[in-house]
Recover the amino acids of this structure.
């Protein structure tokens, strides 16, 4: 399974896809995808719980860890 990570906003019940990943989206046209939506809750953000989730998530998808790292660094820019 290929994984892409990015930040976006939900507007009019739709999620915008970043233009810089357009090439990736073309490959997914008319294909089934799985979506995990993580919503930030500023008042209730639990850093320890997030780190535990991230640890489990990255353990399961560790075979694609380099791609995750590159996307995370791109998002930080």
């Amino acid at each position: 399974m290929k994984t892409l990570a990015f930040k976006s906003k939900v507007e009019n019940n739709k999620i915008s896809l970043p233009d810089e990943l357009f090439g990736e989206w073309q490959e997914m046209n008319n294909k089934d995808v799985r979506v995990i939506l993580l919503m930030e809750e500023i008042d209730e953000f639990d850093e320890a719980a997030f780190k535990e989730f991230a640890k489990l998530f990255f353990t399961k998808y560790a075979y694609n860890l380099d791609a995750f790292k590159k996307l995370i660094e791109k998002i930080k820019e």
